[in-house]
């Protein structure tokens, strides 16, 4: 309830209680003045007199809680302002040990279906779309906060850390073993032969020129030509021999590949060489620039997608949130587990911080001044206390009437 409304109700009940006291005083004066003519008015006078005593006693008691009655510093009055800090400490201690307990928090959370409510909410298209758009709208702010150099260092450090815990030589050995098992290395060998054959075919003039250039000037050119043709024939013959399926060249290549795979699997030297090569590659300025370029491309694509009314990221998030909601709605077992986890987590979290919560109550009350403390409490309970005054007036009057009646018959 708003404080203004509380203040209005307090004024109304206070006016009623005070008005009743004034009415009893008027009734007492009138009945006492007419008693000589009408003796039976003694009963009315006794009622009014006792009612005034009860009303004044309760007025004093109620007022003494919040202030000094009539501004007089009477002992044991203005109880709340004088004991503000002690009340705050007692209230926080009471809250900590009687409300924030495992049993109470667990019992309060037990009927709540957190997972079901969240799933039903997410399953609604307007809700999943709203939350996905909200998430997407926060991405540009996040991108502006992130420094490009920090991203580059993060990527580089993550790659370096991953390489420290990864043995690349055995991995390379396994890859080569798979290729060898499928005879891919022989296809590679054939490719090398064809590359060499094409290079020889396209560079015949250059080979002839190099032979003429490096032969003595006194040597006849016919001999150079013969040497040139013999060299070409020897090279072509070697290439033809290498093409044969059971040639010695193929067997040498096979042995070389097998030895290389074995070295990759067993030799620490190869692992060190690979690590050194990869570290050098990652530390090279081109690699650093490439990582920055990757980040710039990713950021630009994200910003362009987010700016678009048909954002793919928002659509994917929307679909994901809705799918989670629908899946969770249809799986009661998962709902039970989630609810149990949420209850345990919430209970443990709240109870573990109950001293902090209780201390907050105590600190807030300590920071209030005495008048603020009295005013807030009076607004909350003052209306009921005014009814105590009203009840005291009536009960006191009835008690006085009973005692007067008894005294008349004694």
Topology pattern, helix = H, strand = E: HHHHHHHHHHHHHHHHHHH
User: What value does the Rg take, in angstroms?
Assistant: 49 Å
Low-confidence stretches: none
Count of DSSP-assigned helices? 19
Query: Mind describing the biggest β-sheet?
Result: none
Report how far apart the termini are.
53 Å
Sum up the overall morphology in one term.
rod-shaped
* Overall number of strands: 0
Helix proportion: over 70%
Beta-strand percentage? under 5%
Mean pLDDT: 82
Supply the helix-strand structural class: mainly alpha
Give an overview of the whole structure.
- The chain has helices at 3-34, 41-66, 79-82, 84-98, 102-109, 114-123, 125-145, 148-164, 168-181, 184-202, 204-214, 221-243, 248-266, 268-283, 285-307, 312-329, 332-352, 354-367, 370-409.
- The protein has 410 residues and is mainly α.
- Among the domains are: 3-82 and 368-409; 169-267, no CATH class.
- The longest helix has 40 residues, at 370-409.
- The mean pLDDT is 82.
Strands, helices and their partners?
Elements: H1 3-34, H2 41-66, H3 79-82, H4 84-98, H5 102-109, H6 114-123, H7 125-145, H8 148-164, H9 168-181, H10 184-202, H11 204-214, H12 221-243, H13 248-266, H14 268-283, H15 285-307, H16 312-329, H17 332-352, H18 354-367, H19 370-409
């Amino acid at each position: 309830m708003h404080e203004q409304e509380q203040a209005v109700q307090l004024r109304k009940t206070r006016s009623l209680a005070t008005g009743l006291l004034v009415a009893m005083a008027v009734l007492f004066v009138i009945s006492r003045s007419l008693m000589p003519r009408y003796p039976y008015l003694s009963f009315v006078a006794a009622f009014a007199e006792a009612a005034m005593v009860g009303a004044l006693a309760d007025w004093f008691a109620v007022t003494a809680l919040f202030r000094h009655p009539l501004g007089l510093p009477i002992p044991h009055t203005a109880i709340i302002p004088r004991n503000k800090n002690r009340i705050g400490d007692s209230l926080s201690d009471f809250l900590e040990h009687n409300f924030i307990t495992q049993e109470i928090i667990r019992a309060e959370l037990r009927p709540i279906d957190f997972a079901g409510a969240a799933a039903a909410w997410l399953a609604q298209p307007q809700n999943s779309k709203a939350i996905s758009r909200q998430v997407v709208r926060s991405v540009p702010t996040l991108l502006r906060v992130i420094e490009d150099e920090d991203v580059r260092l993060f990527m580089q450090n993550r790659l370096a850390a991953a390489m420290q815990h990864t043995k690349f030589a055995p991995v390379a050995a396994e890859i080569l073993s798979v290729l060898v098992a499928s005879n891919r290395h022989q296809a590679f060998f054939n490719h090398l032969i064809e590359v060499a054959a094409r290079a020889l075919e396209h560079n015949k003039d250059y080979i002839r020129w190099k032979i003429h250039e490096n032969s003595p000037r006194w040597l006849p050119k016919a001999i150079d030509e013969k040497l040139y043709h013999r060299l070409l024939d020897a090279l072509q013959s070697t290439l033809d021999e290498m093409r044969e399926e059971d040639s010695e060249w193929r067997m040498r290549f096979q042995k070389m590949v097998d030895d290389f795979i074995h070295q990759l699997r067993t030799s620490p030297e190869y692992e060190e060489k690979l690590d050194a090569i990869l570290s050098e590659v990652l530390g090279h300025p081109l690699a650093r620039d490439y990582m920055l370029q990757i980040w710039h491309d990713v950021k630009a694509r994200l910003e362009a997608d987010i700016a678009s009314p048909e954002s793919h990221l928002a659509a994917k998030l929307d679909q994901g949130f809705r799918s989670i909601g629908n899946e969770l709605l249809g799986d009661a077992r998962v709902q039970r587990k989630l609810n149990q986890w949420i209850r345990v987590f919430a209970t443990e979290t709240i109870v573990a911080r109950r001293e902090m919560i209780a201390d907050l109550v105590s600190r807030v009350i300590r920071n209030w001044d005495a008048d603020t403390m009295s005013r807030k409490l009076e607004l909350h309970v003052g209306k009921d206390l005014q009814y105590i005054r009203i009840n005291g007036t009536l009960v006191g009057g009835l008690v006085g009437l009973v005692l007067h009646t008894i005294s008349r018959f004694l």
